[in-house]
Amino acid sequence: MTRVTSYCRTVLDRADVGYAVTDARGNLLWCNRALGAVLGVPVEQAYGRSLPALLPGVPEAPAPTREVLAPGPKWLEVRCSRLGDDLMYEVVDVSAWRDRELTVTQEADALRRAQALGRMGTWEWSISEDQVTWSDTLLEMFGFAPGTAFDFELYSRLVHPDDLPMIEETLDAALKTGSVFTYTHRMLRPDGKERVFECFGEVVVDDDGTPVRALGTAHDVTQSSRVHDELVRMAEQDPLTGLPNRRALTRALEQELANNGSGALLVLDLDNFKDVNDLRGHAVGDRVMRMLASALQSRLGDRLIARLGGDEFAVVLPGASLEDASGVADNLKEAVAGFPLAGIGTPARITVSTGLAEFGPGDSWELVLANADLALYASKAAGRDRVTVYEPNHYADTVKRVSVLDRLRSALAGGGLALYGMPMVELSTGTTLGHELLLRLEDGQEPYLGPADFLPVAERSNLILEVDRWVLSTAIDALVEEPDSRLRFNVNVSGRTLEDPDFGGFVLDKLGSAGVAPGRLGLEITETAAVTNLDAAVTLATQLRSFGCRITLDDFGSGFGSFVHLKHLPITGIKIDGEFVKGIETSDADAVLVSGIVQIANGLGLSAVAEWVERPSQVEALKKLGVRVGQGFHLGRPVPLRDVVNAERMPPNGALSSRVVGAEDGARS
């Protein structure tokens, strides 16, 4: 027995749990080393001391449960039980366990806080039981209180119906492959707010490869999704009209072609829309552009119309035949032509030119758009306000146009341009009063290009600005070379040059530095160009006339409301359009009109020159109507500028020509 008792004492001394025996008053009768370590007192010195004093908070009577004490940094669980007339205490140090529990709790709390701050929650799906467990954070993100009973059926009802099939397909695929998965979906919360969630998950399988559970996260990406959608919208939407832009159009066209689709593309350009901006300012121009865009869109329904930039639009017509597409184009042309502009204070009518190109499998969007552009260019070249269907010869026309521009550029740089002077003659005496300078291309290349071949091409590009300045500079240089004040030149100004705000200053600087009297130089502006760019024409004419230059309105009578324009343009003379002159001897109507023009010109103090004088009989008829000055083949053919400068004044050659002045000889410089 003594031996067993010795073993028991040894075991108790080596135990990690503290044991002690006290009398009824709590004085220690015995304790093991583990308890001495807890008390911080050697075992031999602990006997006879009060345990409640050494370990405050210990129960002083037996209790059915353990008491938890926290003396200092330690956590202790204490149990008191009766041992005969004495008390036995069992003290367990649970500090390490409590630290681990606290750490786990803190980590869980940190995770919960992180999920809440990051708008992210977790879920787990027990596949065998078909139960889904949602984290409290995720429930709150879904709009429910923590702990709410929330099954997959309820979740499915809240998901956007367009997104639910995608989720089901993704989960089915993941269950079959056991792979990770991700999807993004919209959800309508109970409070009516739509949120966007990005979900990541993985499938856990057993040793046989059978899926047992799936778990994942859901991240609220509503804000970033809205930012992304806005960036996409900005990247593919025209900011002025709200229509899709060029990028959106090319993407839609490429998608149609990638699916072997066929149909047609329309490219529309508002004719002379720049006049609205020039006459009424960009604020009004922007307003009109928005209204026109809305009018076009209303005629198209759900078909895509995009603004390509400036005053250009494009329409994709999937599956449309050539006849159908032409009908749509005509409908849009009518919508623009019938658009009410009177109340806005802009020109009474805007028209639209349209290019139409078909597309089909094997085409690229670049080719389709280029073909439609070529057809549009053909519409403009043919007079605007029309629909043109792309044909292969349009490409050849473009190649020719580019070739013409290249030749003109080379001629400007290498001396391949020349000026010819066509005399303006006093009909009663045959005296040459001045010359209109006409431009010729003499670059030695074939084929020969007359003014009617190269000037319209130049006028549709910025090259005409350089051409007009070359003509004017060359004319002034010739006036310097021959200082005789009787030598006077008229040079023609294109409509594009009227829009150049620096051209007036350029003319005055050239005249001033050359020392040429301004009255020796006249500028001719066609009536059509002046009306099209009225404000610009008035500005330039006022600037140059105030300095002493002559300003002539060319082709007078060719436009509607010609006499009205005389009120606004500060000109010094007019040229009577040749259409009124070519039959002057036989047409009473022409005679009446010319007579009226002459009377108005005289009343306003303007000079009047008759064009297309081809026969002696015309001269006599014009003189009877009061016309003093004429111009035409009968009075003198164009001759090189060098000959004009060097020649002495000669009477008219009296040459008659069966050839009526055409586009080439009547063309402006």
From TrEMBL:
Q: Residue limits of the EAL domain?
A: 401-652
The protein's matches in CDD domains, at most eight in alphabetical order, are given as: EAL, GGDEF, PAS
Q: Where is the PAC domain?
A: 181-233
What InterPro entries does the record point to?
Biofilm_reg_signaling, EAL_dom, EAL_sf, GGDEF_dom, Nucleotide_cyclase, PAC, PAS, PAS-assoc_C
Per its record, how is this protein called by name? EAL domain-containing protein
Q: Which residues form the PAS domain?
A: 4-51, 132-178
Q: Domain GGDEF: where?
A: 261-392
Do you know which Pfam families this protein is assigned to? EAL (PF00563), GGDEF (PF00990), PAS_3 (PF08447), PAS_9 (PF13426)
